[in-house]
Amino acid sequence: MARTPRTPPEPLPVARAPRKSGRPTSAKPRAPRAHTAPVETVPQPEPRVEAQAEAPTAGSSPPADTPFAFPGADQREMLEALSLNLARAAMTAQSAIAEAALSQADRPAALSPDPFNVGPAMNSVMTSLASRPDKLFAAQADLFNRYMDLWATSTRRAAGEETLAPSKDKRFKDPAWSENPMFDMMRQSYLVTSDWMNGLVSSVEDVDPRTKRRAEFFTKLLTDAFSPSNFLASNPVALKAMAETNGESLVKGMQNFAADLERGMGKLKISQADYGKFVVGENVATAPGQVIWRDELFELIQFDAATETQHTVPLLIFPPWINKFYIMDLQPENSLIRWLSAQGFTVFVCSWVNPDKDKAGFGFDEYLEKGIYRAVEKTLEQTGSKTVNTVGYCIGGTLMGAALAHMAARKDGRVAATTFFAAQHDFAEAGDLLLFTDEHWLGQVEEQMDAAGGVLPGAAMAETFNALRANDLIWSFFVSNYLMGKSPAAFDLLFWNADQTRMPKKLHLDYLRSMYGQNLLSKGEFTIGGIKVDLSKVTIPLYFQASREDHIAPMNSVYRSARAFSNAAVTLTLAGSGHIAGVINPPSANKYQHWTNAALPGTLAEWQAAAVEHPGSWWNHWAAWLADKSGDMIPARDPNKGPLKPIEPAPGSYVKVKS
Fold it and tell me: pLDDT tens for residues 616-647?
């Protein structure tokens, strides 16, 4: 952009000072004001006879008593830059939206205007409220009283009688939200109204609990979306950034917006990390090892030993097929796989294929026979061991639990002990994901999979998981990327989170219907591999890990799952944090805490009441339990020297296939 020449401006006509009522004024030119330490002497124009104040020179501040301030060259340059950048931002956004519309023009319309069936739920809630006018009147009075309290507090604060405590809401932690009375009032007014709306829906009593929870969930989504922090005009932090950068932040934000629309092929796919900073096999998923088996469903990876001796019984990990295994091998310092190798375990991982249309007919039977059983068989063949210990993470743990019940029915003793990370088997209290499993929504999912050739696109599950934590996983990035114009951070965990996989139609629908919809596994009514399996028949030692803030596998659901194995020797540990950080928490990080209790009483509340809190990671506690189940120490195994010959180095090929 061409810079405005720094030359003295032409004299501009200036406004006369306002007349005082009842007294005429005469034209008396003021004496020139002295300028302190001028950088250069600029010839001043002769003052006009009728002028009350002289026009300011370039770069100088107008006199305090000048009724109208005329911008100098610097100010005009900033205004010009701001105007141009706002125009650039608008043009970028308009162009991106137009291109997105064109790219979507030849695609079929949305399957349903209400894919999550919110309408009937909200109708039930509103009908209930309408039938109780006394409740509505009380709610209106409550809202009025809340605003009266807000106005009273704001008045006292304006008078200096009261100071505002820092906000605990991450959306409003910047001091700009409280320093300016207007934005402070806007913030508090929003919080009052949103809290009132959510409370009103929650107060309904004569509605089916699942219907009510659906209405609560989507009311929360709605109120989160309308937060003033999500709009440029009502976000003081974004406005400040725009002013300080002369609009460059908004230009960058709209460039981010356009890039995300392009990446989503016409649908907005918000970037959560700098995806270009990571490459699988180069700076994530780098634990050394070899792929020793590959078939149509998985690659079996054996990782190199990190010690001279290892436990006799190998450890085989089954990650969820919704995500890729390298959540357990992000960076060397937080790699669970490297850490386990350093503890003397022979570590194997089942790296699931990213299924395409040819796997649309694969279901639980195929993932049991061609997945669990074949991986166990090949691990034992490679190590010469008679038994193996297994780990099931999330949905991989659900499958592993069903497999253990199937093995118990067949008297198959090849698995000696199993650990479950954030895994569910009793889905009665499976959290907000239950809201996405009614038949209306499942019908929408089935149509979506049919349109994609029999698989669920990876982005579909990502959108669902993001909706469970919209403020953290949607709106925080919306504000940062688009309103503030910041580039997403290079965060390995969020890079992995965006590296989604597809899911076969048969397997996914059976999982949603049988587990979330009907809870068949915990009832002993789930059929897999031709057998109706019963979790109470499992008698091997089990270790359950739950996370206190897990929104995908809630701790109460995991606790119920642990108790479903009623005849097994169960050890349960509760970790701090959530579904990922609660699991992937190396001891060296010294983060969070965990709780242990040798008993397993009727409820989680009872368990927590008697549990002992320990600082830091739960990994050492688990490693001690696992070592006791893993046999004597033997010379370390080399994946290059086993009966199964190496195919390629870890992390293999399947993990690199993008959806």
Answer: 999 999 999 999 999 999 999 999 999 999 99
DSSP 46: P
613: number of Cβ within 10 Å: 11
Ordered DSSP codes for 388-435: EEEEEETHHHHHHHHHHHHHHHTT---EEEEEEES--S--TT-GGGGG
Hey, what are 510's tokens? Answer: 């059976």
Tell me the chain's radius of gyration from C-alpha atoms.
32
Q: Of the candidates 325, 225, 347, 321, which has an alpha carbon nearest to the alpha carbon of residue 280?
A: 325
Q: Nearest to residue 553, comparing CAs of 430, 463, 462?
A: 430
> pTM for this one?
0.83
Q: Collapse the DSSP code of 317 into the 3-class scheme (helix H, G, I; strand E, B; otherwise coil) and give the result.
A: strand
628 to each of 389, 509, 631, how far by Cα in Å? 11, 39, 7
Burial of residue 171 (number of CB atoms within 10 Å: 0-12, 13-18, 19+): buried
Three-state secondary-structure class, residue 649: strand
* Catalytic residue status for 394: yes
- As a whole number of angstroms, the distance between CA 182 and CA 186 comes to 6
**pLDDT per residue as tens digits for the range 644-656:** 999 999 999 999 9
Which amino acid, residue 479? V
- As given in the structure block, the two tokens for residue 527 are 């059929």
Question: Is-contact 514 521, C-beta < 8 A?
Answer: yes
Residue found under tokens 């124009």: 45
Q: Specify the length of the chain in residues.
A: 659
**Please, what's the b/e burial string for 377-396 (b: 16 or more CB within 10 A of its CB; e: otherwise)?**
ebbbebbebebbbbbbbbbb
Asked if 585 contacts 574 with a C-beta cutoff of 8 angstroms, the reply is no
Residue 574: strand, helix, or coil: strand
User: What pLDDT digit, counting tens, does each position of 535-578 carry?
Assistant: 999 999 999 999 999 999 999 999 999 999 999 999 999 999 99
How far apart are the C-alpha atoms of 296 and 74, rounded to whole Å? 67
* Residue 307 CA: distances (Å) to CA of 3, 310, 632, 637, 642: 65, 7, 14, 10, 17
Tell me the residue type at 523. Answer: K
Residue written as tokens 């669902």? 464
Q: Dihedral of the CA atoms 558, 561, 565, 566 (nearest 10)?
A: 100
Q: Is residue 81 classed exposed, middle or buried when 0-12, 13-18 and 19+ CB atoms within 10 A define those classes?
A: middle
Distance CA(281)–CA(299), nearest Å, equals: 15
Residue 11 carries which DSSP code? P
Amino acid in the structure at residue 316: L
Query: Which of 95-104, 291-300, 429-438 has the weakest average pLDDT?
Result: 95-104
Q: Which of 201, 207, 215, 394 is catalytic?
A: 394
Measured CA to CA, the distance from residue 107 to residue 100 in angstroms comes to 11
